[in-house]
Amino acid sequence: MGWNFSLTNIPDYQLSVYETDTFLTEEGAKHSRTLDSGTLIVANSGATLGVAKILQIKCCANDGIAAIKEQKLGDKKFICYYINTLTKSLRDTIATGNGQPNLNTTLIRGISVPFPQIPEQRAIATALGDMDALLDGLDRLIAKKRAIKQAAMQQLLTGQTRLPEFSGEWKIKRLENILTIRHGKSQKGVEVSNGPYPILATGGQIGTASQAIYEKPSVLIGRKGTINQPQYMDKPFWSVDTLFYSEIKNGNIAKFFYYRFCLIDWMQYNEASGVPSLNTKTIEGIELACPIPEEQTAIVAVLSDMDAEITALETRRAKTRSLKQAMMQELLTGRTRLVKPGEKPIEEAVAQTKGRKPNIYFLRSVLAAEIIDQLHDHSTFGHVKFEKMMFLAEHLCEVDTGSTYYRKAAGPYDNRALRSIDSQLQKQQWFEARKENGRFRYVPMAKRGGHRPYFDRHFSGIGEILEKILTTFKTATTEQCEIVATLLAAWSDLLREKESVSDEMIVHEVLNNWHESKQRIPEDSWLNALGWMRKKGFVPKGVA
């Protein structure tokens, strides 16, 4: 089949699936449609018509959702991504209905989906999934930065928190002593297609003007309609008659009062029963606690830096979204291939002979890839923590990878094995060890996930123990991982010489016979960690 479609101008639709506090009756439950987590669904009506999603929760679905419950062929994630590229065309050409457009089961069954080989489908889904994870991380970071900024505004703009160089009480002032409210005017007679000045309205910029109504920094606020969305302008502009603009007086800083206006619930000053409205006297009569202009400037600098950081993140998010769309256009049309036709399996590429065991160093990279795959996106995960996770996995899961760990500063440590693993991971295009800001992190590559068939084949017996290790240490600090790995190594070494050892003997071994840097950690921390390790079962083989 042809792979012809365009991703141009397709919105980033989101199909929300959420839990509610509404419960079904017993009788209702008998007739409800329950969908398990992992089910591929397609919205068949409403604002999200044509959007596909894989459920992350078990839920009861209404008739606005079509569920693909018995998928026989293809990778579920790949199919989900592909259907989402068709959302616009499904809305425009396939959806039918006398009133609200809808997709019926027959139409959904008739959607044609390209079927490259399963490994290629999975590789494509993994690559696009990495982009989604990056976008999700950026969304969460932006939300966090906005929340931090909002808290800072609440503290700094009301005087609850003061910047170090300022003191003394803020004075209560009426806004009429700080600014004068001016009415905007009709743009008739000044509007031109390519004028030098923006025309500002309550909904944002609506055109350009041949002349400016005001040429100094100003706070704008809706006179009618949208009265709860102050604007700030530091360049010449024209303001329409649905907006007020301000002349700032007595050395006060316009942007400070823009930020301060953003904290005010302007609806409390609404003077109309219909369309929300404000008047000049109401605004100028408001009293606020105000710092001196120098402190206003300092506060504005702090908040402006926060704005700049948020804007940079939003720009990065927009670029990442564009990159994802470009990747979808390339990967889902077959223009760019992640798995070449006729390409030999990875294991064959390392010269395995039929009937022989796989190369131990290849298996070491497979185990490493599984650890990195689960932990790479956590902020605490770098080279040192990875080394400790490898050590714990090998010793607690009783796996031999040919590594030799030394009692160095960051020990247990095997630098040669680490370099070998990094090289193999990059060669297989699973992960790249990239140094950024003085520390290493692991960045997914095009064939991330390609290790899984080999992991399932050769490490199936350790899955449960490894999962426990990775889940336990997922958010642990590097130092916490170092403590546990060091204790396990010292404990194991002592048991080779003695039948039984005490906690004091293990800690003495660490502090006196390992690298001197271990002494930076208090003795109590080592002893407490040993008790925790026993509770968790992270102990050498044969220890109860």
Walk me through the structure:
By secondary structure, this protein is an alpha+beta fold. It has four domains: 26-115, Adenine-n6-DNA-methyltransferase TaqI, Chain A, domain 2 (Alpha-Beta Complex); 118-168 and 294-343, Orthogonal Bundle (Helix Hairpins), CATH 1.10.287; 171-290, Alpha-Beta Complex (Adenine-n6-DNA-methyltransferase TaqI, Chain A, domain 2), CATH 3.90.220; 346-536, no CATH class. It is built from 17 helices and 17 strands. It has helices at residues 26-30, 76-85, 87-94, 105-109, 118-156, 254-262, 280-284, 293-331, 346-349, 360-375, 383-396, 415-427, 452-458, 463-473, 478-497, 503-513, 523-536, and strands spanning 34-35, 40-43, 52-54, 59-60, 65-68, 171-174, 179-183, 191-192, 197-201, 204-209, 218-222, 231-233, 238-239, 243-248, 287-290, 431-436, 439-444. A four-stranded antiparallel β-sheet has the order 7-14-11-12. A four-stranded mixed β-sheet has the order 8-10-9-13, with no helix packed on it. Strands 3-2-5 form a three-stranded antiparallel β-sheet, covered by helices on one side. β9 (197-201) and β10 form a beta hairpin. α10 packs across α12 (415-427), α11 runs parallel beside α15 (478-497) and α16 (503-513) packs across α17. It starts with 25 loop residues before the first helix and ends in an 8-residue tail after the last helix. The model is unreliable at 1-14 and 344-356 (pLDDT under 50).
